[in-house]
Amino acid sequence: MDILALNCGSSSVKYQLFDWKKKEIVAKGMVERVTIGDSYIVHEVPGRDNYREEYECPDHKVAIHLIIKTLTDPKHGVVKDMSQISAVGHRVVHGGEKFTCSVMIDESVLDAIKEVQHLAPLHNPPNIAGIEAAKDVLPDAPHIAIFDTAFHQTMPQHAYTYPLPYEWYEKYGVRRYGFHGTSHLYVSKRAAVLLGKDPKECNIITMHIGNGVSHSAIKGGVSVDTSMGLTPLEGALMGTRCGDIDPAIPAFIMEQEGYNPKEIDSILNKKSGVLGITGQYTDRRDVIAGAEKGNERCKLSLEIEAYRLKKYIGSYAAAIGGIDAVVFTAGVGEMAWLIREMALEGLDFMGIYLDKEVNRNTMTRKRETLITTPDSPVKVFVIPTDEELVFTEDVVAILEGTYTDHMKFQYSFATKEFQRK
Predict the structure, then answer these.
(1) What CATH class does 2-147 carry?
(2) Is 140 a known active-site residue?
(3) Coil, strand or helix: which one is 336?
(4) Which listed residue (2, 148, 324, 394) is catalytic?
(5) Which of 51, 108, 299, 342 could pair covalently with 43 via S-S, beta carbons 3.0-4.6 A apart?
(6) What's domain 197-382's superfamily in CATH?
(7) Taking the complete model, does pTM exceed 0.85, yes or no?
């Protein structure tokens, strides 16, 4: 059984083909610059050189045609024809309150996704375009939606409700939703295994730190709070997003500079965060290198990011009544030992005893590592995330009729026997 996972962004389509029987990736890749010109595909197959092809993709339908053409190519492909693909899993960023778990896509589900696309205008439209394109190209395959927001639908009302006019929630759905749900799900389940506990017995803080950044407070195996809100703009400092700020600032700057709402939204989402502070970088490797060379704004960016990470650890520990573990994941969380060290500095009083040597030697996207000392009451793990595996397991379980939701379903990676390939 081969499962195709698709992640359609505004100008890209990521894909992965997974052999469920062998439990291994058959191929993966990305189509870049969709809709904006000079598009191309990079196709990766284990044991082969990467394949790149320039191919104009004016829309997502053409991009998905290109993926299928590449997967079935006699020389570069991995399947004879698309009948080998049993199902397609689609990442959908925003499911609003309508979806608390992954679902088979039919017309009513697609209509419901369209109804909440105003909550994620940069993300849901390309997700929808990808679903429609894939259903057109693969009409006989089952299509399943996996929602970024579903994992966080367990938050209590007092955690997701904003102190704003309540009718905004009733009329427009203004509330905290949270994102990166599949990542938080995966690493929290893995952390419970590494702790030797049932997820229901664990209090864990998961910190997904990449270009986008979100944190989650997980109590008894479920999300009870998360840093991103109505949109992915709220929360931690990110590559180009500002995260938490005084909400009066946008109105003040609009008045001072004459920006309209669309312009100020673009600045907060695309020109702030690490880029806004440094003036030139979004990649933390560049920021760290700049700081080492004495760039004061790079130093400041690192200090701000680490300080905000530290504050989230402290506030979430208070919110869930103490913690068993903290988990760092995603590109920066897995690779940037300096940011981890700065964020954890001074947290001995909480029972976090960092092993600096182990932490500094932990820069991998393949291995799970404990970076606290053996006697540390609170454990800190670096756990490479695997959102595609969550996609695949949800899809297979839905096809087999065994899927319930992430709270009851037994994932393979939530067992001691699981081995990451």
Answers:
(1) alpha beta
(2) no
(3) coil
(4) 148
(5) 51
(6) ATPase, nucleotide binding domain (3.30.420.40)
(7) yes
